[in-house]
Each structure stands twice: as structure tokens, then as C-alpha cells.
Amino acid sequence: MRLLLENGHSNLTIRAVAQAAGVAETTVYRRWPSVGHLIAAALLRLTATDNPIPDTGSVEDDLATLLSQIVALLTRPDVMRVVRSAAAIDDGGAFAATRAAFFDARFTASAAIVERAVARGQLPAGTDSHRLIETLVAPAYMRALLGSRGFDDDFVDSSVAATLHGFDGRTGPPRP
Amino acid sequence: MRLLLENGHSNLTIRAVAQAAGVAETTVYRRWPSVGHLIAAALLRLTATDNPIPDTGSVEDDLATLLSQIVALLTRPDVMRVVRSAAAIDDGGAFAATRAAFFDARFTASAAIVERAVARGQLPAGTDSHRLIETLVAPAYMRALLGSRGFDDDFVDSSVAATLHGFDGRTGPPRP
């Protein structure tokens, strides 16, 4: 993590990681077969602790909490250095698959928000949870990575409103 | 463009560009004061010709055409190499500003779609065109850059539907 944050992905090698950790290269390779796996592991570690899946009882609040956590992560320089590294690499193979698996895991975990909302009657049955969460979070990633605007106070609330509305969500208290 | 596509942004220098073009470095610096400016110019050139702002008379068709063009660009390896370069750099200064200016210009141009839709009664007065276009296109950028899924046949239509719905758009023919 330190090497990645200090020097970026283009200077990260298994050899350097092994030296910094004081272990043999084979020890690193056994758990992380490529630099891509190391970057994905760094992403996972940075996000998992600071981005739990909320369960507030309200779909609006769940989505607002989730997006607020993501915006908080995406405004941290250390996190952005790793996200930029993850976006920069185009090996068309091992790393692309690892990166995809990381984001698929996040989308799958977030799907619980949508499933609970469907059970409460706040979203229609059959709502595509991956598409809904993607619609919610993608503008945050695009702003952070390609940076045409920062995050204003209204960003989270207007994203939640447009997303819920776009997927026929019922706002307000759950159906009794 | 050739150097960028062949070697990526981390090996791009003004000196190499000047040598490849057979001109003095000062000649390059006069128009593109930094490598960031060169990358932004490359993005502009790649997107401007293949991504005109549609004007079909229907907001649904305009948004579908715009997003289809963007998806077509984001599935081209040469375009993605430039977009990944643009996302990778975090200089917190000159390049970030140039990159932001590029995307702001694209959002401003696309706003015409929203303005015409408001004039036709297909979207409410006061619709935030930047937010609407961002909601439409951000999932495409996130998928292309962080790659948890490819683009299926339904991607464009479902993105347009969720976006229009999310911003209270009236689908179907314009109000007479």
C-alpha cells in the first residue's frame, strides 16, 4: 500500500513489494500473482472498512449513506491514487478481470439495499439492482476521475432523487 | 496522437512529440504548454469528429444517439488508451484543469439536447442539463474505465429510460 501510494502503479513491482516487506518474491506471488492483484487488494482494503453497506430501514437513507461514503472515499487523495491506478491499466487480461471482480463484488453487496427496498414496497419487483446502484454511483466516479466538477452539498441528495425516480422508487415511509 | 496511442501517457514528452513532428520543442510548447494539453487535444480530436450533438426532434432519440456514440468511442481501444491516460493523471493543477475544461465543454454542448427538450415540453423547465447528461453518460464511462461489465444490447435504451424518468421527462411525441 505504501509503495503504491508513494510511487503509483507504474513503478510498482512484485520485487519491490517483496523487498519492502522483507520476504521472498515467491511469498508475494503465492497470494498476489500479479501487480494487478496487489492493486485490487489495495482497493478492497481502502474501501471495505470505510464503505459498509447501510441498512437504515429506508431506501432513500440507504442510498444517501452509501453514496456519501463513496464521495468521502473519492475525495481522499490516497484512495484516488489507487482508483486512478486501477483505471489506468489496460492489460486486457488478468488485471481487467481482477478489477471487474472487485467492482462486481461491491455491486453485489450493494444489491441488498435494493432487495430490502423491493421487500418493503419502496421499489418495484424485478428492479435491476446492478443498474440502479451503477446509476447512483457512476457520476461520482466520473467526476472524481475525469473531474469536470467537484462535489457540492446537493450532489448526494440530487443523485439519490434522480436514481430513485428513474427506477420508479417510492420515497417516504415504507408501505405498511 | 501516434506516440500517445503507441506508448501511453507516461512516456509522452514534449521533446518526443517535437522530434516525431520534425519541429522545434518551442513550436510544440507554443500551442500545447504541457503534456496534459496534448492529451486533452487528443481526446478532443478523437471525440469531436465521432460524437456530434444529435438533433432528431425527440429527446429520447437524441439521448440514445448521444449515448450510442459514446459507447462506440469507449469500445475503441485507441480511444480507451487516451481516456485511461486522462483518468490516470493527478497533477492537481494544469492537467486537471485542462481535463475538466474538456468535459465541461462536452457537457455544455450536450446541454442543447436538454434545452430543446424543455422547449418542446419533454422535460420540465429548470432541468439541470449537466446533471441529466452526467446521469446518462457516467455509467458508460465507469464501465469502460473500471470494467465490471461490457455493454449489452439493452444498455443504451435502459440508460435513456432511467435518465429521462429520473428527471421527469415525458417520453413519446412532443407536446403539440
UniProtKB/TrEMBL annotation, chains A, B:
Domain of life: Bacteria
DNA-binding residue intervals: 13-32
Protein name, per record: TetR family transcriptional regulator
SUPFAM superfamilies: Homeodomain-like, Tetracyclin repressor-like, C-terminal domain
Annotated source species: Gordonia spumicola
Keywords in alphabetical order: DNA-binding, Transcription, Transcription regulation
Domain HTH tetR-type: 1-50
GO molecular function: DNA-binding transcription factor activity; transcription cis-regulatory region binding
